[in-house]
Amino acid sequence: MRVPEPDVDELEDSELIDLVIQPTLYALKPGGAREDLDEVLDLATPGQRALLVIQTFTSSVKNGGLYGFFLNSTGVLTEDVVRGLYLVGANNAADTLREAIELFPGAEVPLDRRERETVLDSEDPDFDELDKHFYRIFPSLRDLCARYIRANRSQFFKTLY
């Protein structure tokens, strides 16, 4: 799922990120099951996988905060997002997401969406401060992702010879 390598130094960070996650986004089925997602993620390089789940996470949090991320189907990606954040060097963001996970019983986010919804309704975790923290660090997260792409080009681009 790699794309031909452009002149990455000429692209803005957001353009670069969009370019490298497009192949994985196109492979996803709208509203697909976790098995469909796993099939796509299994074909992706570690970097592609990280960027896809980070992009999904940031979009979800921007639209509904951590509560929305966990409540929606995206919540199944929680551990993938943590690993992806650590991979790209976003340790602060990964640690903050771990803090949110700690608000779940047993510090485990259920994989089943209905179970997550039940837990969120019964526990009513307060994600406000963690949400604010994410909103502040999202720009630096984009920078870290772009830096990771530039430093690990072979995970994202195919060489045309």
How would you characterize this protein structure?
This protein is globular. The model has no long low-confidence stretch (mean pLDDT 87). Helix 1 (13-27) packs across helix 3 and helix 4 (78-87) packs antiparallel against helix 5. It contains 7 helices and 2 strands, in the order E-H-H-H-H-H-H-H-E. With 161 residues, the chain is an all-alpha fold. Strands 1-2 form a two-stranded parallel ribbon. 30% of the residues are buried. The protein has a single domain (12-154), classed as A middle domain of Talin 1 (Up-down Bundle).
Short structural summary:
The protein has 161 residues and is an all-alpha fold. Helices cover 66% and strands 2% of the residues.
Please tell me the CATH architecture by its name. Answer: Up-down Bundle
Output the strand order for the largest sheet: 1-2
Q: Helix fraction? A: 55-70%
| SSE string, helices as H and strands as E | EHHHHHHHE
* Largest sheet, strands/sense/barrel: 2 strands, parallel
- Total strand segments: 2
User: Low-confidence parts, pLDDT < 50 over ≥5 residues?
Assistant: none
| Overall form | globular
Number of helices: 7
Strand content: under 5%
Within the CATH hierarchy, at the fold level, what is the topology? A middle domain of Talin 1
Mean pLDDT, nearest integer? Answer: 87
How far is it from the N-terminal to the C-terminal residue, by CA?
17 Å
